[in-house]
Write a structure and sequence with these properties.
Blueprint (H helix, E strand, L loop, with lengths): L5 E3 L5 H11 L4 H6 L3 H21 L3 E4 L4 E6 L7 H11 L2 H17 L5 E9 L8 H16 L2 E6 L5 H6 L2 E3 L12 E5 L3
Parallel strand pairs: 4-5
Antiparallel strand pairs: 1-2, 2-3, 3-4, 5-7, 6-7
Helix pairs in contact: 1-3, 3-4
Length: 194
């Protein structure tokens, strides 16, 4: 593999990064539980993911690999998700039963989310056609190196059990399992600075 550069996203990169995230999550168990119909996924998931990642873009903590092969969208300490647009997006696009389960999941997420200052990995994804090339590891290490310098915690929720080993290789520890109704499990993970 030639030299890969990690870039900081600007406003002109948003649509390309969102498009890549849509591709990266097209087989994700949790996201496809939300939107099992392909058309509904392609129409609604971009709006949902924009709501989830808005603060990462605003705080300029979105990093991507050359060619938009992958991206990591982080929230720095003391910046939190704005849940209102996330909930609105879900209420407008999923069934009432799934919304009830999703609300229960969000409560569980709040339980595991650290109260002390931390970096929150809101989304990380690699285009399915480019997975397995080390881009996810490069993107993780980019910000985790800063976490170590700052002696800061890092936190995430994995929506795909296949990714747990990747996160563990980078020092994350599994805290438990989040699940409600017939939703696939989600896995909260915390990393202490090294």
């Amino acid at each position: 593999m030639s030299t890969v550069t990690i870039n900081t996203a600007t406003a002109s990169d948003i649509e390309k990064i969102i498009d890549m995230v849509v591709l990266a999550f097209s087989a994700d168990p949790f996201e496809r539980w939300l939107y099992p119909d392909p058309h509904a996924y392609l129409i609604n998931f971009p709006t949902f993911i924009k709501a989830v990642t808005a603060q990462a873009f605003e705080s300029r903590n979105v990093y991507y690999v050359d060619g938009y092969a992958g991206a990591a969208l982080w929230l720095p300490p003391d910046i939190h998700l704005d849940e209102e647009p996330i909930i609105t997006s879900l209420e407008q696009t999923i069934s009432k039963q799934k919304m009830a389960d999703t609300s229960a999941i969000m409560e569980q997420m709040a339980f595991y989310h650290p109260h002390e200052p931390h970096w929150y990995l809101a989304v990380i994804g690699v285009d399915g056609a480019r997975q397995g090339l080390g881009f996810g590891s490069m993107l993780l290490q980019h910000t985790l190196a800063s976490c170590d310098r700052e002696h800061a915690l890092a936190y995430l929720e994995s929506t795909n059990p296949k990714n747990i080993s990747l996160y563990e290789r980078h020092g994350f520890e599994l805290l438990g399992t989040i699940q409600a109704g017939n939703a696939p499990p989600m896995f909260p993970m915390l990393r202490k600075p090294r």
